[in-house]
Design goal:
Helix content is about 40%, strand content about 20%. By secondary structure, the chain is an alpha+beta fold. It is elongated. It contains seven helices and 15 strands. The N terminus is likely disordered. Strands 2, 3, 6, 7 and 10 form a five-stranded antiparallel β-sheet that branches. Helix 5 packs across helix 6, helix 5 packs across helix 7 and helix 6 runs antiparallel to helix 7.
């Protein structure tokens, strides 16, 4: 009776916080838009497929980086919180279903310091990661149809000279599956970056001059925002965010080719080490004439799950900046599930290995 009462109490606690918690899950609890509603485009960081670490966007002279009115995003999803990303608003102004064309973004003066910083970002293929309604921006590989990458590239190298992407053609995909014009959901966020030299012409379309990076000159940046209706359901948001960005980009910075092979290799080695540890412990236990080996063979290797959870506590207090109950609850819920799974997996591997080992050695004993 008591355990049922506890379960019911926990259920009602979760029910009270479900709306708050949902806002922090990637792809979940999408914002409902109607025509004219303000759409906020955020800045995450600078990420690269060639570098392990991300860079602070506001450490570089990029558009929106020096705006005093930038505010931190109130409800980033849990994976952004855990990764330590600081989410801020851009100075791109847009309202739902109102397209903008060739709109001024910012001017940047390329002095010696700025030139070297941009050069570093281009050499290491850093991209500006923008997001809208918890969906991060993607761009299609112009050389391979159907292949997408995260973020807006800073520039590129051509004929031994550096060129900057100065024109961002942003497309926001939305869904109106219910037919109600006041209930729309954003289901995609894409960009087509272009290099355009606006010093020769203020026009965006038809301007074929490329923006080379030269010292002691101003560079103008502009953008388009276009809203396109899509037949993708709102559920596509979570699929899009979990499989292409979070799983691949967050873990391997877009190096997706060896992910599953490496993951299974690590799991296999973890199980193998757990088995070896358990067999050794069981052997010494029996050598000391102690026949109580069952739980020892399980708990000893399974303790790695306990250490994993303890490390998550350490990481929470020393590495993260989580303040709300919802963020804390989700973080420790995920940590507990991962730690418990590790405990069961390593413990089971250890017990089964010891069991097979003992059957093998005792079956070889001959009794006269």
């Amino acid at each position: 009776m008591m355990h049922k009462l506890v379960l019911i109490t926990l259920f009602f606690i979760l029910l009270c916080f479900v709306n708050d918690v949902g806002a922090y899950l990637p792809g979940m609890n999408p914002t409902t838009y109607r025509k004219g509603d303000k759409v906020v485009i955020n800045i995450k960081n600078l990420s690269s497929r060639r570098a392990v670490t991300s860079l602070n966007y506001f450490s570089f002279p990029l558009c929106s980086s020096d705006n005093a009115n930038i505010k931190r995003e109130k409800s980033p999803n849990i994976f952004k919180i855990i990764s330590g990303d600081n989410i801020h608003n851009t100075t791109i102004e847009t309202s739902f279903l109102n397209d903008k064309t060739c709109t001024f973004y910012c001017n940047v003066f390329i002095d010696e310091e700025v030139y070297n910083k941009y050069k570093h970002l281009i050499l290491f293929n850093y991209n500006m990661v923008y997001s809208v309604d918890n969906l991060e921006i993607f761009r299609e590989d112009p050389r391979r149809k159907g292949f997408y990458y995260t973020g807006i590239p800073i520039g590129y190298i051509q004929d031994r000279s550096y060129h900057l992407y100065t024109y961002y053609k942003i497309t926001i995909l939305y869904n109106n599956s219910g037919g109600d014009p006041n209930k729309n959901h954003i289901v995609g966020f894409e960009v087509e970056p272009k290099s355009v030299d606006f010093s020769t012409s203020e026009e965006c379309e038809g301007n074929e001059t490329k923006q080379s990076m030269e010292k002691n000159k101003y560079v103008t940046f502009k953008y388009d925002v276009k809203y396109v209706k899509s037949d993708k359901p709102p559920q596509h948001r979570s699929e899009h965010y979990y499989q292409l960005f979070f799983l691949f980009t967050s873990l391997w910075k877009s190096n997706v080719y060896y992910l599953f092979g490496f993951l299974f290799l690590v799991i296999f080695l973890l199980g193998l080490l757990s088995a070896q540890l358990s067999i050794s412990l069981t052997y010494y236990t029996l050598s000391c004439e102690d026949y109580n080996w069952w739980w020892k063979s399980f708990i000893a290797p399974g303790s790695s799950g306990i250490f994993l959870f303890l490390y998550s506590v350490y990481y929470y207090f020393l590495k993260l900046s989580i303040s709300s109950f919802a963020e804390t609850f989700i973080y420790f819920a995920y940590s507990f599930v991962m730690s418990y799974t590790c405990f069961i997996y390593t413990g089971t591997a250890g017990f089964l290995a010891s069991f097979v080992f003992l059957r093998k050695i005792y079956s070889s004993i001959k009794v006269d």
